[in-house]
């Protein structure tokens, strides 16, 4: 799992805008300040959308396991990948621990 | 860069072109002008702007009688003179023609004229009943009339046309679905925007629905955030026969024509002959 405390609260970075066209299976994150754009899969989009609602890492993990009906180990692996991508590309940030 | 007439502000136009020459983000641009104000002495200066792709002028017919009925007395002569001046300076020239009942029978002759004058490309657009065209709604072609005109254009285009005719427009795909050089999606929301002089942004010059102001909102916020643009991008939002058409990946009709005919920019293209 990422080196974050479970109480860490996550947020979308300012200027990030999410967009979905579910019927075409197209999901995106856009930075409306510098034009960066990212194509996402549905899972990554769901994670970012949930983070946009204001959740802690613990809450995100709990909801993630429930949403996709997966075991905790797989959930941690998948979340680690998505959160790592989000932080590396300045899509998400930690707002408090 | 268009207007009105961009050469009415000649100094600003040249200053803007100088600025674009130094830009890191603009690859090329065209100037759309009626050609009447281009001076012989400035064509050599124009040619030095490396990112100027071509100058587009409008011709509505192959004769002064037809063209000037629409564009005004003397317009044909001044436009043809501008084409020659630009061509002599080595600048690529494009001609744009708006097809209506008034000039549809002159299109083949116009193609010949463009070829004789060394025009690089010819764009043939449909008359949209908006702006000054609103009073010309009786000149808008019926679907069958448009089909006949488009078939004639396509026949010339693929049989040794003297000028390159731009066929990547909605509805052209109906003529030859297997030809990748024919037809295109409406550019609104996909690969184009119009920025007006006050910064107001439209999805297309012919679809004047404000989707923000580039001076206050910024470009990316509009491009990525506009609900109108996202509605345009999703073919599931199309109405009528466009929604069910098997050419939905190649056509989707003209959204401006739908808007000014029905009030709904996602309605079916009223000029589709299918």
- Total helical segments of chain A: 3
* Count, helices of chain B: 10
- Residue windows where pLDDT falls under 50 for at least 5 positions of chain B: none
Strand fraction of chain B? 5-15%
Looking across the biggest beta sheet of chain A, what order are the strands in?
Answer: 5-1-6
Instruction: Give the number of DSSP strands of chain A.
Output: 6
Spatial strand sequence of the major β-sheet of chain B: 1-2-3-4-5
Structural class of chain A: alpha+beta
The interface involving the most residues is between: A-B, 13 and 10 residues
What is the helix content of chain B?
25-40%
Describe the structure concisely.
The complex is a heterodimer of chains A (97) and B (274). With 97 residues, chain A is of the alpha+beta class. Chain A is built from three helices and six strands.
Looking at this protein, list some descriptive labels:
heterodimer; A: 97 residues; alpha+beta; three-stranded antiparallel sheet; 3 helices; B: 274 residues; alpha/beta; five-stranded parallel sheet; two-stranded antiparallel sheet; 10 helices
Describe this structure in words.
In chain A, 41% of the residues lie in helices and 28% in strands. Chain A has 97 residues and is of the alpha+beta class. In chain A, α1 packs across α3 (72-88). Chain B has 274 residues and is an alpha/beta fold. In chain B, α6 (143-157) links the parallel β4 (121-126) and β5. Classes of the chains: A alpha+beta (97), B alpha/beta (274). At the A-B interface, β2 and β3 of A face α7 of B.
Fold topology:
The complex is a heterodimer of chains A (97) and B (274).
Chain A (H helix, E strand, L loop, with lengths): L8 E4 L3 E6 L4 E6 L5 E4 L1 H11 L2 E2 H12 L3 H17 L3 E5 L1
Antiparallel strand pairs in A: 1-5, 1-6, 2-3, 3-4
Chain B lengths: L9 H12 L7 E4 L10 H5 L4 E7 L5 H8 L3 H14 L4 E7 L7 H10 L4 E6 L16 H15 L6 E3 L27 E2 L5 E2 L16 H7 L1 H7 L6 H5 L10 H8 L12
Parallel strand pairs in B: 1-2, 2-3, 3-4, 4-5
Antiparallel strand pairs in B: 6-7
């Amino acid at each position: 799992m990422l080196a974050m405390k479970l109480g860490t609260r996550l947020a979308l970075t300012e200027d990030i805008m999410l967009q979905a066209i579910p019927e075409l299976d197209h999901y995106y994150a856009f930075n409306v300040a510098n034009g960066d754009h990212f194509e996402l899969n549905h899972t990554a989009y769901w994670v970012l959308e949930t983070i946009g609602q204001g959740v802690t890492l613990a809450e995100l993990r709990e909801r993630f396991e429930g949403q996709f009906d997966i075991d905790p180990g797989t959930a941690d692996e998948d979340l680690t990948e998505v959160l790592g991508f989000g932080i590396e590309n300045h899509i998400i940030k930690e707002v408090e621990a | 860069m268009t207007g009105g007439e961009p050469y009415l502000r000649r100094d600003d136009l040249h200053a803007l072109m100088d600025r674009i020459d130094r830009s890191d983000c603009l690859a090329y641009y065209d100037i759309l002008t009626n050609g009447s104000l281009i001076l012989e002495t400035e064509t050599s200066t124009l040619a030095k702007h490396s990112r100027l792709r071509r100058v587009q002028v409008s011709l509505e017919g192959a004769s002064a009688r037809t063209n000037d009925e629409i564009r005004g007395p003397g317009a044909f002569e001044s436009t043809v003179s501008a084409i020659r001046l630009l061509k002599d300076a080595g600048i690529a020239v494009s001609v744009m023609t708006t097809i209506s009942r008034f000039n549809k029978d002159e299109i083949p002759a116009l193609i010949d004229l463009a070829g004789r004058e060394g025009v690089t490309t010819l764009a043939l657009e449909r008359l949209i009943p908006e702006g000054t065209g609103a009073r010309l709604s009786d000149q808008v072609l019926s679907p069958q009339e448009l089909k006949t005109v488009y078939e004639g254009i396509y026949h010339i285009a693929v049989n040794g046309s003297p000028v390159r005719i731009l066929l990547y427009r909605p509805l052209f795909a109906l003529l030859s679905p297997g030809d990748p050089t024919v037809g295109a999606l409406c550019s609104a929301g996909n690969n184009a925007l119009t920025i007006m002089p006050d910064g107001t942004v439209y999805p297309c010059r012919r679809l004047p629905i404000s989707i923000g102001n580039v001076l206050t909102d910024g470009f990316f916020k509009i491009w990525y955030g506009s609900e109108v643009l996202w509605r345009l991008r999703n073919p599931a939002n199309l109405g009528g026969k466009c929604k069910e058409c098997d050419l939905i990946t190649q056509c989707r009709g003209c959204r401006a024509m739908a808007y000014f005919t029905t009030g709904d920019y996602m309605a079916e293209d009223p000029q589709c002959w299918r």
